[in-house]
Amino acid sequence: MEDDRRVGDLVGELVYRLQSDSLSPHSNSNPNPNSEDVKYAIRILSSRMTPLVVANEAAMANSIKSQMAKQGKLSDALSFADLYSRFASKTGPGSVKNKRAVLYLLKVISEDRSSNPKFQTDRSFTDLDTNENRSTDLKDNSRSWNDNLRALRDQNSRKLKNGGVLFISRDPDDMRDMAYREFATLVNMENDVSEEVLVSDVLSVCQGIDGKYVKFDANVDGYLLPNSIKVPKATRIMIRKLCELGWLYQKVIGYISDNLDGFSSENVGKVAKAFCSALQDELLGYDKLLTVLQSHDLSLRRLSVWLVEPMVKMRRMAVLVDSCRSLKGGAMAGAIHLHAQHGDPLLHDFMKQLLQKLSSPLFEMVRSWVLEGDLQDSYSEFFISEQSVKPESLWREGYKVNHLMLPSFISKSLAHQILRTGKSINFLKVCCNDHSWAELSTEAVSATWTNPKRRGLGYGETNALESLVTESSKRIDKHLMDVVFNQYKFKEHCLAIKHYILLGQGDFVQYLMEVIEPVLMEPANTISLLHLSGLLQKSILSSSAQYDNPDILDRLTVKMMPHGTNRIKDIGWDVFSLDYDPRVPLNTIFTESAMGNYLKIFNFLWKIRRVEHGILRSWKAMKPNLSTSLLTKLPKGVKFQVVLRRCQVLWGQMSHFLTNLQSYVMFEVLEVSWDKFCNEMKASKDLDDLIDAHDKYLSSIIEKSLLGESCKDLIKTLLMLFDVILRFTSVLDRFYEGINEFGSSKNKMKKGKGLKSKSLETDSWVNEGRKAVTQRAGEFLKNMGHDFDEISKEYLLLLKGFICQLPMQQHVDLKFLLFRLDFTEIHV
Prior knowledge:
Elements: H1 2-22, H2 35-46, H3 57-70, H4 74-89, H5 99-115, H6 117-121, H7 138-161, H8 172-190, H9 195-205, E1 215-217, E2 222-224, H10 233-261, H11 270-294, H12 300-306, H13 308-323, H14 329-339, H15 345-358, H16 360-372, E3 384-386, H17 394-397, E4 399-401, H18 412-430, H19 437-448, H20 462-487, H21 490-501, H22 506-520, H23 529-541, H24 550-555, E5 556-560, H25 572-575, E6 576-580, H26 592-621, H27 624-633, H28 640-683, H29 687-704, H30 712-755, H31 764-768, H32 770-805, H33 814-821
Antiparallel strand pairs: 1-2, 3-4, 5-6
């Protein structure tokens, strides 16, 4: 009662002061305020005048000014603008703080008076009545005002109980809280369960625990409020939405539990453990938030606001759990990285923190690999896999990039550089028995991080990772190349293979052919490998090869090609070959496959040298002085010169072919390829470059030497030409043997006549006489001429076919061979 009376007095005094300021200076100084004016003031102060859309102060002033301008009150609008500028400039103590509320009050009063005709004619606050019409004193009016105020409050209270207008206190800070509490009281009267209980249930469900009323329903796979509980539909929908957080929480915590139970299993690795640890950290912060919320008096609507951010994070964690359930290691980190590509700053920061924790084991594996060559991957999570192989296969097959485990935030080029760096360290340790690389790793770390306290790798630090890999790779690769070239003499061994396997050491090859020829004419199954090795050593000591490095000569051995013990047709020429033992670590470059290709080239070159050796040997029998001596051995009347000329022409054609073929192989193929290989060898920066250069060198020789897959028909024709030439030398040997036989028969005839021997055991040719010998010599030469003609026809036919196939070959260097063999185009 006392408070109501005091409020009434204050309102009356406020109206009195407003009316006093509006009176003229000559009016009575004791005016009584009109009771209608007081009622209007109380109605304003007792009402809720908060706008639906809160405008700022400047917008409110512009709205009032625009309204005046629309009503045609331009002078009033200008006056208001001047007054507002002075009103807005007032700051500091004694000034109005909430200027926007004052402007809004004035605007509402103006609109209310404009819409109410009663107040358009009323003089309250503008035209005030004179004091002569007022007969009651201020004290009586004050009592009446207090009664009106109490009546208005009682009326508002009754309306509130009937679901009507809410009573809001004049204090703006308490107005909304009072209205909310009164509204909550009305809502609770219509529900079977109070909102406080529902909020408690929702908070329990958010921790994966069934509440008193909200429980998990397996049929719908979610938390539900039973239909038997009477609550508004909107409340039921909100509970269902909030309880999604509990369902997501159960999924995340279930994944963590499954992986924690499987820590001893091979299916769960370090990255999965780090992922579970990161999820646990997030859930710990989430549990702390729920604990804080439980200590506050919240409504469902306010709780939904608090749970917006946890809902976003929990949904993302549930998505990650589903997508990573069957993944591990780098594949898991890559899949989570794809989810981090999001425009929402909240999700982006959340995913970045999560990836920094779960990728730390992966980056530790990278650091250990590129600096120490250690592959600490017990669970097969790293994108580099290791295979158990022999030392000679360590570089090519020991380590591979497992693209299934390569995370998407590491590029393929960087992954291969990481692979080569660690592989180089292991190659130095295992194959080269070198340990000086450790100092280089320390230098790489110092070059990457100038700050000694900051020497780690992590997610988002791609530049640091690339810098570390580049610095380490640059130093390790350079050291490895120095070891291969200086300590293991790689270039010297390449040159030795060129000299002995590719038959580039001329005097050695020539002496070996002469020494070993008689042995190789024997059947292959009768030749002793030990005997051939002795002949090889004899050839080395008889040529300039004896001055070569003893280690190189020690690696040169004789090798017999596989042949059947019962195959009489195979002779020593068919199975003989030279072999070179590269040994570790050079057998990483000179692999078994590469040495097989070298053997293939050697057999081809050895075949050419054998045919050339046969042609040169036959030339010795065809020298002019030898031909003249043969003429004296034959009976008169035998046309030996015709057959001999035919042999010389055919020999010249074959010699021309072999000379140009061998010149092409030695100069256009071997020397040119070797020169390119030396340049590429010098430019190689790592072992992969060196291996590629050597493979390219070897492939170039094979392709240019007609030994490639695309030259199968061509090499087949060439080998047939070699067989024809060897057959020619064989027929030529038989030709000279026959002539020598006739010569010896003629001498026996002369001796028989001189001694006048009558013995019956004399040779048949002697007994037959000169006429019979002449007849047999003619038949012999005729048969030889026929054999030479057949060989000549077959040779020219094969040669023409060989030359015609050359233009169809893809390699451009084969055009030089075509020019050498047929520069007059006689065979085309």
